Amino acid sequence: MFMDWMIANKRFSEGRALTYIEYPSKFAYSLNSREWKPRQRGFPIGRLSFAHPSSGELFYMRMLLNVQRGCTSFQSIRTVNGVAYDTFQEACFVVGFLIDDNEFVSAIKEVAELASTTQLKRLCDIIAIWFHGKTFDSLGTNLGLFV
Q: Which domain of life is it from (predicted)?
C-alpha cells in the first residue's frame, strides 16, 4: 500500500498536493488491483502504523510522512527545500522536528491511547536512554498531563 502510494503520486497530479495521511480523503485503495484510485464516494478511514522511537529511520520517515507532499520515492521523502538528505533523521532535523521534545510527546500520546501502562513506561525509558535525556525534564512535566 505504501509503495503503491508513491506510484499513484507519479500517476495522479492531484495526489501530489496531499501527504500520506491526507491521501485517503481523495483516493481509495483497491485491494484487488493493489492501487490507489480517485475516491468516488464514501467516508475515508486511514491510519499510519505506529513506529517506535527506537526503530530509527522508520520512526523518522513516519514523522516526515505527516508533512511531505506528493512523494514519489524514498529520496523525495528525505528531500526538504530541494535538498535531498542522506537520512530521514537529517531531514527531520531540517524540518524542525528534532529541535525540541514535541516528537516524543506526540509518540507517547499516541501510545497512551493504545498501550498498557507498562508499555508506556517502557517507551519512556527507551526515550530517556536512547536520546540521552534530551529535555527529559520538560517531557516528564508534559507526561503528567496524560499519564
A: Eukaryota
